[in-house]
C-alpha cells in the first residue's frame, strides 16, 4: 500500500547517462511527460563514484564498475514527475540489456551489463540524496536570477 501512495507523489529521480550512453536517453524521459529540472556534463571523480555505488562495494564487479563510470563524462540529470522513480525503472529496464524488450532504453541502446548506458535512482529518498550529492543547480537558474 505504501508503494502505491509513493507512486502518486511528485518525486525527483537522479538519472545519469553513463559514459557510453547517448543523447536519445533524454528524449525517452521527455516523451514520457517528465520535467527536466537540471542537467550537467560531469567527469565523476573516483571517490564520488565509490560513494554513489557504496552499497555494491563488496561485489566482485565493483572495481570494474568504478572504472566504467569514471571512463569519461556522464550526463547528470534531475527529472521530476508523478511516480518518476518507478517509471524511470520501467523505461531503463533490466540490469542486463539483453533482457530488455524493444522500446526499453537498455534493450535498445546497450548490449552488456558492464556497459548498460544509464542509471536511475532506486527510490525517491535516494533520488533527493543523489541530486544533492552532485550539488545540483537547476538549469534555468541563470535565466530567472540575474
Ligand atoms: N554491474 C556489473 N555487473 C553485474 C551487476 C552490475 O557490471 O554483474 C554494474 C552495472 O553497470 C549496473 C551497476 O553495476 O548498472 C549497478 O548494479 P545494480 O545491480 O544496482 O543494477 P541497476 O540498478 O543499475 O540495474
Ligand atoms: Mg541499482
UniProtKB/TrEMBL annotation:
Keywords: ATP-binding, Kinase, Magnesium, Metal-binding, Nucleotide metabolism, Nucleotide-binding, Transferase
UniProt keyword Kinase, yes or no: yes
GO molecular function terms attached to this record: ATP binding; metal ion binding; nucleoside diphosphate kinase activity
A Pfam family of this chain: NDK
Reaction it catalyzes: a 2'-deoxyribonucleoside 5'-diphosphate + ATP = a 2'-deoxyribonucleoside 5'-triphosphate + ADP; a ribonucleoside 5'-diphosphate + ATP = a ribonucleoside 5'-triphosphate + ADP
Compartment list: Mitochondrion intermembrane space; Mitochondrion matrix
Cofactor(s) in the UniProt record: Mg(2+)
Domain Nucleoside diphosphate kinase-like: 10-138
Family: Belongs to the NDK family.
GO terms, biological process: CTP biosynthetic process; GTP biosynthetic process; UTP biosynthetic process
PANTHER family: NUCLEOSIDE DIPHOSPHATE KINASE
EC number in record: 2.7.4.6
Protein name as it appears in the record: Nucleoside diphosphate kinase, mitochondrial
GO cellular component, one term: mitochondrial intermembrane space
Amino acid at each position: 500500500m505504501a508503494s502505491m501512495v509513493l507512486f502518486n507523489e511528485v518525486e525527483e529521480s537522479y538519472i545519469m547517462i553513463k559514459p557510453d550512453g547517448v543523447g536519445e536517453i533524454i528524449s525517452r524521459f521527455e516523451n514520457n511527460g517528465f520535467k527536466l529540472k537540471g542537467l550537467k556534463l560531469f567527469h565523476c571523480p573516483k571517490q564520488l563514484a565509490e560513494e554513489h555505488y557504496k552499497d555494491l562495494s563488496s561485489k566482485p564487479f565493483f572495481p570494474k564498475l568504478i572504472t566504467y563510470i569514471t571512463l569519461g563524462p556522464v550526463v547528470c540529470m534531475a527529472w521530476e514527475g508523478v511516480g518518476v522513480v518507478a517509471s524511470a525503472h520501467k523505461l531503463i529496464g533490466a540490469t542486463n540489456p539483453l533482457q530488455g524488450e524493444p522500446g526499453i532504453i537498455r534493450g535498445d541502446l546497450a548490449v552488456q551489463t558492464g556497459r548498460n548506458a544509464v542509471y536511475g535512482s532506486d527510490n525517491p529518498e535516494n533520488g533527493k540524496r543523489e541530486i544533492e550529492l552532485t550539488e545540483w543547480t537547476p538549469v534555468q537558474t541563470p535565466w530567472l536570477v540575474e
